[in-house]
């Protein structure tokens, strides 16, 4: 998935596993940017009695590079604390949870938000409460209005924050993609699917009806940009203390400095660009050191797989691969941003430092008629200019890797006809619940009573 | 509860030179060379010359105020007994220490 369980080690540590990062100029408050970092992937809504939560022992951060050096000029840190008022019941709640102060709610989390920037560390909020997980109509009635909306908090600097469960907004056909890059709408052309007589078919949204945990911030643009530099680079990290000792009473003791165990900026980078043997290492590295991985961007494995798995469909891409032509288009899109002059009126270039950052040009206003294909769809307010919750990043990246963006750097190259059509066959219409029109934009989480349906 | 810490280790557990030292206190932690220990008293004063320890800024991650205090537990990871290279974890810090004598004593204590 975008970055769900994308590396061997982090796949065993869900609470520290970053799954998606979003950064966009807020469509309903265009003087602000919204930053969202998702964690705790693939939550079955009925997964009780220990429902999903953030890790008290994890340091969650959202970083912003304002200077183009791939270093964090601003970091927001989030630390969680769990309370268990009654340890003598197995129940998450002993009666309906009707409000965030309900005494019936027996396992709750609060959190602090701290901003670090050139002026120092500033605690922006503390004791902020997360909503409960959405259990069902008996336990969490009137979830959106009574429990989720009151969990949107104002911070001391005027920013807005939410941390808690949300409906998974990333749509992807995992079942087909991880089955030898089969894309159901084109599987009549796929090497192995064709041999089995598979016909073209619609995509299947694998994470439909699953939840995730989101950390969402809405911040005035002036608070996250440097004067005269509207392009920011955004990424999230999760860190754990280096030493852990398990006690024999079920507890544990952590000590030492925090060390990074997960990071995420552009979708699908560690998932499909970085090879299996380097994925865990990638998660420990700082974006400023990403030059060491540049070869994987210049010669992406997916670009070689497409002609092999779809024989005869991508002849121009195959020729490009055979010539060992470095994919400077992919390097630009994912590692430096697109320089001025490549696309009329657009840039999200941050400088020559190669780093996986989600780059957002905050001077580009929200689109009146957005395209889920973002920049490829003529919508400069969408991915890879930041990322909105509804952007079809799977199709955008598939098309780019298939060669659609090569003409940005080589006008003599003609993309294969199929490249511009690639998709896993999904759109936001395949979600089980809609996005929200306002902060935190990701939909109300699915409840465990109704999902899966009987 | 996740994240809960046990009680602090009393320094009386840590008479490393004494045959009566506590093995319990020495068995916490993990070590690639098979040696780990909680060592508060032993890491203070003369047991570790100041020049032998270093606190690398690169090893610390700014995670907010978590000042070390004298009652805080310490985890020692002996990385290499032969060279005496150890990481000493306390609070949110890690100090890289080189002390062959202490490493050898910890090794003996962990048998």
N-to-C SSE string of chain A, H for helix and E for strand = EEEEEEHEEHHEHEEHHHHHHEH
What structural class is derived from the secondary structure elements of chain A?
alpha+beta
**Form type of chain B:** globular
Per DSSP, the total helix count of chain B is: 2
Q: Can you give the mean pLDDT of chain B?
A: 58
Helix content of chain B: 10-25%
Rounded to an integer, what's the Rg of chain B over CA atoms?
Answer: 13 Å
Morphology of chain A: globular
Major sheet of chain A: size, sense and barrel closure? 7 strands, antiparallel
> What low-confidence regions of chain A span 5 or more consecutive residues with pLDDT below 50?
none
Oligomeric status: heterodimer
- CA-CA gap between termini of chain B: 31 Å
Largest sheet of chain B: 5 strands, antiparallel
Binned strand content of chain A:
15-25%
What's the pLDDT, averaged over the residues of chain A?
97
- Helix/strand-derived category of chain B reads alpha+beta
Helix-strand string of chain B: HEEEEEH
Q: What's the helix count of chain A?
A: 11
State the total count of DSSP E strands of chain A.
12
What can you see in these coordinates?
The complex is a heterodimer of chains A (454) and B (111). Chain A has helices at 143-148, 174-177, 191-195, 221-224, 269-273, 279-284, 294-298, 301-309, 315-322, 328-336, 393-404, and strands at 18-25, 32-43, 59-65, 74-83, 108-117, 120-129, 153-154, 160-167, 211-220, 231-246, 252-264, 358-361. Chain A has 454 residues and is an alpha+beta fold. Chain A has one domain (10-430). In chain A, strands 3, 4, 5, 6, 10, 11 and 12 form a seven-stranded antiparallel beta sheet that branches. In chain A, strands 1-2-9-8-7 form a five-stranded antiparallel beta sheet. In chain A, 52% of the residues are buried. The model of chain A has no long low-confidence stretch (mean pLDDT 97). With 111 residues, chain B is an alpha+beta fold. In chain B, a hairpin with a 2-residue loop joins strand 4 and strand 5. In chain B, strands 1-3-4-5-2 form a five-stranded antiparallel beta sheet, covered by helices on one side. Chain B has a domain at 29-61 and 69-109. Chain B is 13% helix and 22% strand. The interface between A and B is medium-sized, with 28 and 26 residues.
